Amino acid sequence: MQNLFAGFFISLLIHLGLVLSVSNIFNIDLLDFQADYSPPIPAYLVFEEPELISKKKYESIIIKNVISDPRQKINIEEIILKADKEILILESKASQPKKVKKKELHLNDKNTVLFFSSIIEEQIKAVWKKPIASDDLSVEIFLSMVPTGEILGVEVTRSSGSEAFDRSALIAVAKVEKFENLSMPAKLFNDNFRNFTLVFKPQ
Amino acid sequence: MKYLKNILLLFIFFSSSYFYSQLRIEITGGAEEPVKVAMVPFEWRLDFPPPAYLHEIVKKDLESFAEFSVLSPEGMLSYPTLEEEISYRDWRLLKVDFLVIGAVLKSEIEGEVNISYSILDVSRQKNIHKALMMGSLKSLNRIGHNISDRIYQKINGIPGIFSTRIAYVDKPISNKESYDLRITDIDGKGDLSLFSSSQPILSPDWSPNGKEIAYVSFEEGTSRIYIQELATGNRRALKHEKGINSSPSWSPDGKFLSAVLSKGGNPDIYLYDLKNNSWKQLTDHYGIDTEPDWSPNGKSLIFTSNRSGSPQIYELNISSMKVKRKTFEGTYNARARYLPSGKKIIYVHRKKGVFHIALHNLKTGKISILTDTFLDESPSIAPNGNVIIYATKDKNTDTDVLAGVTINGKTKFILPSASGGAREPAWSPILDKY
Amino acid sequence: MTLFRRFLILTAIMVGISACSSTSIERTSDATAVSASTGNVYSESSLTSSSTVYFSYDNYNIDSIGSDKIKNLAAIVKKNDLNVRVEGHCDERGTREYNLALGEKRANAIAELLIINGVSRANIMTVSYGEEKPSSRGSNEKSWSKNRRALIKTF
Questions:
Q1: How many domains does chain B divide into?
Q2: Which of B125, B156, B187 is the last residue of a domain?
């Protein structure tokens, strides 16, 4: 009886450890400790506090700057620089702060994930031919990927109920085969992009 | 044994943590290009030349509403007939999404053919439909339309409408005293007369099984409702009442018709029981109640009523008999029809004095105008809910024509009418079921 | 090989086995339709006269010209014990069935006025043709005004 509890307790600890490490609950900025760490891209905020811009706004700026052809080679740092510059311009136009303080904007994890999500989104959008009468339908596809962008596994985790709609999503993934321009720090990839879900939901 | 249990628990925890990833990316839209289909000319294994080419019929069907692009045989790199012969690289190069291959074979039955065909998903190199179709050699056209329907349905998830028919009333400009109830295939072929008269015919409505059509005829000097069986031409009249007998609408179970009678002093909606030939009053209002249409689930009727002062659309719940007004925009809304989903309706909507066809979401109340032609009326919806046909006027020639539009408003078309007097279209239900 | 990869391959194999496509049997029907004709068709052989009363758009009120006509007609009908058939018509604007109802309002209005002027209800029959029998072709107010009418026929 005791042995069983001990075994269970150890398993629980291991699982908790895994969960906590993946979720980065203590917000340890591992970027600082990695070999491939690059210094933050300097940018100048006009506000006193660094404001986290709304996801939608950031995305729309990135998409505007990013790609007419989603598969063409791009310089990621250049794009982020451009995007951040535009955000600054937008924000400076929005209001007139009293004090001007210079601060540095980190290429933080959240924004980077958004950025690469947009790249993935654009590449899928470019090839997805959605069926007629797809309103109100939604299918969820679970993907597993390697850092080179190659898609290893595809699985429908939540069917739309329409064989044709599900198929159109699977075809879009098959057409992409390999996502381009996804070079990012290894930890960011493992935490977010090694396995993720695509939700096909026409608006 | 206990260590085995621990290992099992560890295994579960380890594998489950691989699925822990939270990232969800939403894909809200897709490419604008239509789906590209390639149908390789079927191998013809009979000992006489083919009277028609199936791939030509299918190409014409699928390209009807600008929803597909179909590769012509001249553009193909190879011509496989069997699945083993397919080189998927050839088709990927041509950016083909779906490939259709097949053969027309002899049948043991006299005058018949067997068609073996497959639909293949080029991107994933998978067979998504394999079938053996049997039909008469005389109706090769029909076989072609059936194949188009299967391709459409496999790719879009909704039925194709290439084997359906349109019933309509024709009143030639040349002859003032001639009215003709006709049906035609979607491609305009097989246009024939069902019933001719020197007195007006209106409001054709198909039975749910596609075997009968109800319509109004003035042959006796007043409006009466008749039902005609298509295969035999046999006609029977509903028990007629004094005044107006019109606007028949078949119930989804085929047992009742809703219609309009004015025997009570003003036009109201009535229910006709086909089994015991009796009428039952459904609405009782001193105004005009007309143009009923059954909901696909058989639970309600929408109709036109001017009880608020001008024609508007109302919905009647058949079990509770409660009536609810549905339209609040504009001063003339009439002749509503449910879409197959039951969630939206189309109707005639007058905006700035001009009559258009509007699409109306019953839940949100949102309207969108689908047409920009002149004096639009009598809209009828295809059984897959994707296309609308309606009657309108060609301003240049001042003739009555039938026009159509896809439900997303993107593709419009006009059906040329030889007589110049086509009106009152009624789209059939799906006729060939598997 | 990672655990997950193994899992994927296993599912792929299972799906592969179960996805053997089967052949559907489909049958094309040969449905054609047959023409029908009717025996009796309404005709107006014993017609003695026909008068026309005009209406304004979307309206069934009778103007003074109309009511005078009807008054005079009523006298003739009473004198000769004639039967009256009132036909209501509309212009082409609006939906057909709604216009059928509107036409009936026009015919009934005329009938009521005839009755007020002494004609027996039993001698009157009303019919609506809606927009189905226009007297003038053309999509303009000139034609439309000619079509918004009621015909009073005596037999």
A1: 2
A2: B156
The amino acid sitting at A203 is Q
Residues B188 and B312 in one domain: yes
Q: Is residue B144 part of a domain?
A: yes
Domain encompassing residue B393: 165-427
The position carrying tokens 């039967």 is C83
Q: What is the pLDDT of residue B18?
A: 46
CATH at residue B329:
2.120.10.30
pLDDT digits (tens, 9 = 90+) for A138-173: 999 999 999 999 999 999 999 999 999 999 999 999
The SS3 call for residue C145 is helix
Give residues with Cβ within 8 angstroms of B25, minimum separation 6: A117, A120, A121, A196, A197, A198, A199
pLDDT at C45: 81
Residues of chain C whose pLDDT is less than 50?
Answer: 16-19
| Residue listed under structure tokens 């019929």 | B57
C-beta of residue B366 within 8 angstroms of C-beta of residue B345: no
> What is the ipTM metric for this complex?
0.88
Interface residue C13 vs chain A (CB under 8 A): no
Contact status, residue B203 vs residue B258, Cβ threshold 8 Å: no
Radius of gyration for chain C, computed over Cα atoms and rounded to the nearest angstrom: 32
Cα–Cα distance for residue pair A116/B23, rounded to 1 Å:
11
Dihedral in degrees, nearest 10, Cα atoms B349, B353, B355, B360: -20
Share of chain A above pLDDT 70, in %: 57
Sites in chain B below the pLDDT cut of 50: 16-19
Order of strands across the sheet that contains B165-170: B192-197, B179-185, B165-170, B422-427
Alpha-carbon radius of gyration of chain B? 26
The model's pLDDT over B42-91, given as tens digits with 9 standing for 90+, comes to 999 999 899 999 999 999 999 999 999 999 999 999 999 999 999 999 99
A9 — pLDDT class (breaks 50, 70, 90): confident
8 Å CB contact of A144 and C8: yes
Q: With pLDDT > 90 as the criterion, what percentage of chain A qualifies?
A: 35
Backbone angles phi, psi at B159, to 5 degrees: -65, 150
Residues B412 and B337 in one domain: yes
**Max Cα–Cα distance, chain B, nearest Å:** 96
What is B79-105 written as a DSSP string? --SSGGG--HHHHHHTT-SEEEEEEEE
The last residue of a domain, from among B156, B185, B214 = B156
Backbone angle region of A49, left / alpha / beta, with phi > 0 → left and psi within -120 to 50 → alpha: beta
Chains B & C: contacts with CB separation below 8 Å: 176
Q: Does residue A146 sit at the C interface (CB-CB below 8 Å)?
A: no
Are B415 and B384 contained in the same domain? yes
- On whether both B198 and B290 belong to a single domain, the answer is yes
Mean pLDDT on A30-38: 44
- What CATH number corresponds to the domain at position B41? 3.40.50.10070
What ranges in C60-120 are assigned the alpha helix state H? 64-80, 96-116
Q: Does A155 touch chain C (CB under 8 A)?
A: yes
Q: Amino acid letter at B290? A: T
pLDDT at site B17: 44
In a domain, B117, yes or no: yes
Question: Two tokens at B195?
Answer: 């019933």
Q: Which of B116, B137, B263, B288 to mutate to test the interface with C (most CBs of C within 10 A)?
A: B288
- The verdict on B58 and B199 lying in the same domain is no
In a domain, B23, yes or no: no
Query: What tens digit of pLDDT does each residue of A101-128 get?
Result: 334 334 567 778 888 999 999 999 999 9
Residue B2 included in any domain: no
If asked whether residues B152 and B179 sit together in one domain, one would say no
**Judgement on whether residues B151 and B253 belong to the same structural domain of the protein:** no
CB contact under 8 A, C11 and A155: yes
Among B24, B29, B158, beta carbon nearest to A197: B24
Is the same domain home to B48 and B84? yes
Token digits for B264? 């009570």
